[in-house]
Structures are given as C-alpha cells and as structure tokens.
C-alpha cells in the first residue's frame, strides 16, 4: 500500500555558511590527505577500482590495438551449424566447398576454451526458419527469393540418421557443428535474417549483461558475419573480428576475387578491428 503523501516529511539539513578561513582549511586538508600515499597514489587507486569492476586487456589488432574489459565482452559465434559447416548440410549439398569453414573450426574452439576460462560469455547465432516458414518472408520477398536455390525447408535424411530439413529450427541441419557444441552457460539465439540483431533477443541479452565489446567468429564472412558486425557497430558495440575464425565459401561460377578479404578490409576501415585467434588468446593470458 502506498504511503499517504501528506504523512511524508522531508527533513532538510541545517544550512551553515562557512567562513573563508574554514573553506581554505578544508581545501588544504583534502589536498594533504591525497598526498599521504606519495606521488601517484591517486592514479593507482583509480586503477584498483577499475580492476575490481573488470579486467582490461589489450588486443593486438588492425588498424591499431584495442583495449577491452573482459567483464564487458562476449564472443559471438555466427552460424557455425551443420547446414554451413558439415558434410550433408545445405552448403555442401549445393556443391559449394566447405573446407574453409571446416578450417575455421579449430581456432574457434581454442578461442571458446580461452574465453570460458576467462569468464567471457559466449553467444551462438543460428540461421533457421520456423517449420511453417512463417518467418521466411512473403513469396516475393528478397529473403525468400535469395534462399530458394538452396532448397530451404526440404526434407533430408541427416548423416546422423535423423529426419531433418534444410535451415529449419530444431533439426540436425541447424545444430551447431559437433566440435563447437554450446555449453550450459552459453546463449543460443535463432535468427531468420542475415544479421543477428534483426528481430532477435541478441541486443537485449547483451545489454542485460553489460556487454560493450564483441569478439566475432563464424561464417560466412561477407554475409551473416558482416551483416551482424554492421548492426553491432550501429548499436555502439566495439567489434573485434578474428579473421582466422571465419570463412567465406566461394560458390561455383562466381566472380573472381575473395569476398572474405573484401569484408575484412571494409571492417578494418569502417566498422571494427581485425585480429587473429592467437593474438586474442595472448591478450587474455597476459
């Protein structure tokens, strides 16, 4: 029951006018107290306070090194699921070479181990649609039209023996690859567009945790990774891309050139910082 406002009395502190001599005495006493510990004591105290709240590490990166607070940091694993990185998944069935994505698995696994040891949160993103395709888009939507060549929703017999469907939630196809399975304390968030922030709980989850820095891994570099990084930057997250922890498969009959390299160059110039797994782990161990 709310108290009656008439019964609340605000007590006002007694106001006292200090003389000029008293004011000067207070200033002198404050200055003297700050010097008791000797020169530099004030800055040391500030560092100690900062260390209580977090731990600052410096990552060697391009275009310059970046300092992050690991208590305000999360590792994002983008779409490292069977449809993209396993034999029998969507990308493999489309005749696209997945060796680059497979190569990224080992460094990602090492990064996740180091991050968990340091107390850094892990968030997995999974590209998937509802079984009724209600979040796939209208028949003429770009999202649906661009995915049609990949047989989204098609029923398959998964390598593990299960009945499954391409890019559909809660199936073998959208499970995280075996080598990178989420643990109990990790977050797993479904998305139905390239960006991990579009109509998902990613932003609200990160904000509840006080996250400001994102370590980005996953696939594919120029599509879901880059889309997520751009949206993260628009929301004032500082992103560090680990370039050996991501890959961009080249579809058959595509134009020459590396989309992976182009995305890395753009990220370094405009959206984020670029580093590697070893540099990130070295920073955590320093």
Can you offer a commentary on this structure?
- There is one protein chain.
- This protein has a 6-stranded parallel β-sheet. Strands 1-2 form a two-stranded antiparallel sheet. It has a two-stranded antiparallel ribbon with strand order 5-6.
- Helices cover 36% and strands 18% of the residues.
- Mean pLDDT is 85; it is low at 1-52.
- With 286 residues, the chain is of the alpha/beta class.
- The protein has a single domain (57-285), classed as Isochorismatase-like (Rossmann fold, 3-Layer(aba) Sandwich).
- It has 10 helices and 10 strands.
- Helix 8 (221-234) packs parallel to helix 9.
Q: What is the element layout, followed by pairings?
A:
Layout lengths: L19 H15 L6 H13 L2 E4 L6 E4 L3 E6 L3 H4 L4 H4 L5 H19 L3 E7 L14 H6 L7 E3 L5 E3 L21 E5 L10 H7 L4 E7 L1 H14 L3 E10 L11 H13 L1 E3 L1 H9 L1
Parallel strand pairs: 3-4, 3-8, 4-7, 8-9, 9-10
Antiparallel strand pairs: 1-2, 5-6
Helix pairs in contact: 5-10, 8-9
User: What can be said about the biggest beta sheet?
Assistant: 6 strands, parallel
Report the uncertain regions.
1-52
The assigned CATH architecture is 3-Layer(aba) Sandwich
- CATH classification, class level: Alpha Beta
Number of structurally distinct domains:
1
Helix-strand string: HHEEEHHHEHEEEHEHEHEH
- Determine the CATH topology: Rossmann fold
Please report the distance between the alpha carbons of the first and last residues: 54 Å
Q: Over the alpha carbons, how many angstroms does the gyration radius reach?
A: 26 Å
